[in-house]
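Q: My collaborator sent me two sequences in one message, no labels, and asked for predicted structures for both. Can we handle them in order? The first one she listed is below.
A: Yes, handling them in the order given. First sequence, followed by its structure tokens:
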Amino acid sequence: KKNITADNISKIEKMLPNNVENVKLIIDFDKILQTMVEERGTVRLYKSEEKTDTGSTKVSIENPKITPGSVSETGYDNTRLGAINFSFTVTLTYSDFLEFLRRIEHSTRIMDIESIAFTIAPGQAGSNQSADPIYTFNITLKTYWMKYISDTKIQ
């Protein structure tokens, strides 16, 4: 413990926080998504009445839902490790969706994708557009948090 730097302790606490952090989780996913479409220059493909502080079209996750999860299938002690299920919808092109998944995969927090389902986005069916079609993806993932136990707190 004594050889762990303060920076590494901070990274560990982000990877496995000591509380659920529901609101922060939703905000983090919105930031990942918005940053990605702005960097890729695909923000123009998505219709939204909302604007960001910079005047760009706001792209965000939709219908976020957080429910209690279980760690019983992981083999870990459920008195020390908690889990939540996080489901949401996002409307993207397939290539943007793959990049979104890549960024989730490389985020600091530990997550397991439980399911992905998709449909063609409303207004896209039957259209003969040469551009990438836009899909609505329904994603459910599980993320974990360390239950606070005073004798295991990293110091």
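Q: And the one she listed second?
A: Here it is, processed independently of the first:
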Amino acid sequence: WTYQVTVIKLTRSVVWFFIFFFLMIRRPPRSTLFPYTTLFRSARVARRSHANARELTTQLTAIEGVEAVFERPFFHERALRVNDSAGDVLRALQAQSIIGGYGLKRFYPELGEAILVCATETRTEEDIARYATEMERIISKRRLDPPCADRAFK
């Protein structure tokens, strides 16, 4: 009799454990999986990401001193080579509140001064144009006019 009671208690414990375990297992919130889930939520999002990456690449490679490292298909990231120090270019972009990409020289020294750039569906045309304008200014070593230059002094 004692043996049967022990087995029943043990069986109930195991059943409750499995119920609790499977109830606690659930898909993690989408925000913890960013940016991976955002790329695959829908075909519309994927098309927008790819279009933004193409536009960014087109605008950046039009700048003298910036070229694509590989002439292969890409989705939303592209490796670009700059004629200046990639680290300096990224720091200058960061000073303009632009996350310019990731310098590849540390891990791929054979690529030279290369930057991995990315554009997802969250970027607007204005964001891409601003990135390209700042990159062109930095590569050509043009300085921004100081804020007081806009004032007309008499």
